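User: Hey, quick favor. My workstation is busy. Could you predict this chain's structure for me?
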Amino acid sequence: MHSHNHLNLGVLAHVDAGKTSLTERLLHAAGLLDEPGSVDAGTTRTDSLDLERRRGITIKAAVVSFPLGDRTVNLVDTPGHPDFIAEVERVLAVLDGAVLVVSAVEGVQPQTRVLLRTLRRLRIPTLLFVNKIDRRGARELLGELRARLDPAVVPLGVPYGAGAPGARFRPYAVDEPAYTDALAEVLTARDDALLGAYLDGGLSPARLRGALRRAVAAARVHPVLYGSALTGAGIAELRDALATLLPVARGDAGAPLSASVFKIERGRGGERRAYARLHSGRLAVRERVPYGAEGKSAVLTGLDVFADGGPVPARTARAGQIALVHGLAGIRIGDRIGTGTGSGTDESGTAFAPPSLSSVVVPEGRRDALALWPALSELAEQDPLIGLRRDPAREEISVSLYGEVQKEVIATTLLEEYGVRAGFRVSRPLCVERVRGEGAAVEVGEQDGNPFLATIGLRVRAGAPGSGTVFRLGIELGSLPPAFLKAIEETVGTVLGEGLRGWPVVDCEVTLFRSGYWPRQSHSHAVFDKSMSSTAGDFRLLTPLVLMAALRAAGTVVEEPVHRFRLEVPAEAYGAVLPLLGRLGAVPGAPHAAGGTYTVEGEIPAAHVHELGRSLPGPSRGEGVLETEFATYRPVRGEVPGRSRTDADPLHREEYLLRVVRGVPVDGRR
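Assistant: No problem, here it is.
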């Protein structure tokens, strides 16, 4: 009999910090493995892909489960390499808590900072586990954690013998002065009532412990533990912290069903299976459930929940659990199952930066070319941020990327899973277009060359940064049938995927200020005649012409992705590194000198990040340490890049009308 208390726990880290090894050690400590698996030997439970085992990195999130006191922990092991941050983003929507693993040798790394910043913003309770205390060069790191991650960290003990194979973790006693003083200092800085009680006569260990639990649950404070996934040091104390400091899953099993899909995989027979976190309600085999934005529904043909290591068949799943769902054809990552309003952190929007690079996939032979699109389409089901794009004019397929390692993984997956041989062209930045001013356009039905039974007037202007596409009504509610209104709004979102220069238009406000339609009509004693009456198709086909005319009147600026960088080099090498930064378009700030090292921060176009990393060892004498992360978009300097359109181009009216009205191919396209 398994507990109804569930903790959906993410294990996150910068690559090579040891999180997959920690997952194995936790499974071993729970009695589910005779021996922990080894990443180096390719014997871990969660790195199940051959490619993961060969490369020694996690590429796909994996779910395992183990009992812990009165709760069942569903543990999600996530990728650590920044090229696979999209996989981490999807997992965040289902977590009740997290363990962020930091290497005691390498310390706080770029991805560590990005991850904790995101966990805090999404208010996910997080413990810090400083791993590898048994390795040579291991450090206590407390000052670095506070300086580079968050001041609100509280050690739950101290490492002894760090840097030697026998290193261990000694937890503080609950009434130990070093512990209660450190706890009081951090907690009272964030709780005025607690500060008042402290000043009035001190705080009991019990009250401090209760305050710590509340602060951890609110993601305001992060306890720090030390240990080694290799030797098992600190694992018992980590298990205790998981059981006592992190909150269990919340959700009302009696409420309407609401679940979010965070992973899709294919079974051996090719059937699609969805990993879903239940926020409220229940799922049951052979029940019909609604899912997806299109209002689909289907009968569940099978269901697994996670217990004793992995998925086990079940008849039902309830709020708080993660379920593996069978039978929902066409379901996609990010889809909702059910009609309830219960939700996880995915309501908070995109957690990480979007991909900033793109590359054309080049098949080797004719057979590879025929199989490439279906294979990539199936991969895009599992990773929507691949951003698959087909250019029929150039007969090219491109994908969105976070980095160069992702190219290697996609190419290897295409070859080994689909038998498709393919390579990649040089990556180029994924730009965006931002509206420069304000513009409007109107098309009146059956006038001035408008062949559609529809009248549309649209106004376009720039929206607030980060607002996305906002569609507003400037017409009287009810003056246009809902189906026609929906057709306009949906088409606006699609058309803005390719602006005046072919790049996505971001942060744009579109207002419908004029509309008109022809009511359903028929000839005398005849059936409905669509040649005399407006249809949703009229509005779908006319909207691109009006919207792009308004956008042309407003104008757009092409912006390229820019990364923030932090670079540490020996002081004597700084003069040699500066010209490299200048050649790559980087804008460095003033350097900071400390202990024979120069640290400089600044911005660099995303297109040159990989080259900077590749070229740095020479001028820095192999001692340069580079950290980068997406920062923002900036207007392109110099020649403005364009991207060919993939649709019937509404910027060229005559060709557009020939294609959509008469179906005439243009430039070999249909």
